[in-house]
């Protein structure tokens, strides 16, 4: 069924070959069985031999299998012999499930005509199920609802069926029952894909217009581009152009995607394929871009946007001498993941490193793990922070990605921070806990609605900076794990963000500076000073630890000096002798403090970074 009875733009009638093509994807919340169901579809159609078959066959990273999530989109072509005696080509475009990769999901959906909406029978509808469903509806996809894991002991089939009917307004008969693990209902899903999802539309004889929905890096072939052809066709050896970068290339190899790439002389309208041009630079290929011919180019496909990083953090080598090796590894990693951005950064405490931009916290965690696993790099990651926008008194717009970029307050008119729309689905028992947590994070309650008597949806608007540190952990502990969370950015809003410096004996420590809301600064500064007092080694002189906003000190701690008992040799005699020795020591401490240098050991620095964990 197609929600809202939306009408697809009328185009030329489907080509005879296009009638037998179906392009579809699977949308679901994390851990609802998307990859397992894909495995069964490949097995049922003999797309993969028994020898090549393994769990989560489309997730080719060890990290994906361990975490049970899809990180990179995948595509594979399935041949299915339908009951009408006709062979159909089914292009499965697998999508990542996590909110960090929502732009990749939106481009993959734009390459499809239909989607399997997969819901776990034991968990029901979750936050990301709804957000991905909305993306599918925006792209006018045919939705086939599927209840998965029906063979599990805790399966609530009737309850979940009612949730789906309430959500998308379908009939009970439209909902398919399946189990990816046990292989139940797979034939019914294949039949529904052929019967319910419309064939692709487009003009096979028109100018080439293909949507890039993913790319991967191969060390021998360069960057391999995955695309879906909306109009025209692409031939081997043809001169092609990428619209957004205005770059020209030769199509050295084109073909279709089975488990491995299969070269073809031509890929036609409506189909999904790959393209190799020998590109070695990841920045030249952008997801969502349009491929067209060099001669008589077509217009760009609507919906393309540059992927902007949301979370920033510093990545430093543990040993300073490993910096060059880390730089090489970051370059190689960027070839595999074009959404990773980085630039050189220097810190007093950690030396040379990189300021990196990530799509979100999961993306940051994945990059760190890939550096350790694939490149054997042990790295230090600093506290993540988000991007702000400052406006100068002259009206200039200045992006602020770290505290050192914060302009002088005298030259700054205002500063804005990114707000997100957060969607939380939970049980009614935990509404109070979630309200307390979100309102304490400067959130605004926008809406509260009951999806079913036992499931409530809460919508908040809150600053992204408040969810970067410990929000996920607190949400899980406050709801005993019975809450799913999803968010998307909405806009930048005026905010009272200040730069807080840590000052040791009058010297600022740049690596410990933080951008923080003024209402939080005093509490955060006090905790930071207390932590530093525990961790900094004592010196021969007194150390003053101060947290300051501009010239105003908001918190202070003192580390007392290590003292030698200079009066130990005086026993008996006049008190003035002892006083003279103590005065002499006092003068020496004063002089030492003026020339003394406070070093922040790396252990202390790392412990301070974990203050927010």
- Tell how many strands the DSSP assignment holds: 32
CATH homolog superfamily of the largest domain: P-loop containing nucleotide triphosphate hydrolases
Quaternary structure annotation: single chain
Task: Give the overall pLDDT as a whole number.
Answer: 77
Our measurement of the CA-to-CA distance between the termini, rounded to an integer number of angstroms, reads 45 Å
Q: Tell me what the CATH architecture of the largest domain is.
A: 3-Layer(aba) Sandwich
Structural class: alpha+beta
Q: Roughly what percent helix? A: 25-40%
Radius of gyration: 29 Å
Q: What is the topology, as strand order, of the major beta sheet?
A: 11-10-16-7-8-15-12-13
Provide the number of structural domains. 5
CATH class of the largest domain: Alpha Beta
Q: What portion of residues belong to β-strands?
A: 25-35%
Question: How many helical stretches?
Answer: 13
Characterize the largest beta sheet: strand count, sense, and whether it forms a barrel: 8 strands, antiparallel
Low-confidence stretches: 3-16, 59-68
* Principal-axes shape call: elongated
Task: Kindly report the CATH topology of the largest domain.
Answer: Rossmann fold
Draw up the topology in text.
Layout: E1 21-27, H1 34-44, H2 62-67, E2 74-81, E3 87-94, H3 102-110, E4 114-120, H4 127-138, E5 142-148, H5 157-168, E6 176-177, H6 186-196, E7 209-218, E8 222-231, E9 234-235, E10 239-242, E11 247-250, E12 253-257, E13 261-264, E14 266-267, E15 272-276, E16 290-293, E17 311-317, H7 323-336, E18 341-347, E19 351-358, H8 361-375, E20 379-381, E21 385-386, E22 388-392, E23 397-400, E24 412-426, H9 431-440, E25 444-452, E26 455-463, H10 471-478, E27 483-494, E28 497-504, E29 507-508, E30 514-517, H11 518-535, E31 543-549, E32 552-559, H12 575-595, H13 602-609
Parallel strand pairs: 1-3, 1-4, 4-5, 5-6
Antiparallel strand pairs: 2-3, 7-8, 7-16, 8-15, 9-14, 10-11, 10-16, 12-13, 12-15, 17-19, 17-20, 17-21, 18-19, 22-23, 22-24, 24-26, 24-27, 25-26, 28-29, 28-30, 28-31, 31-32
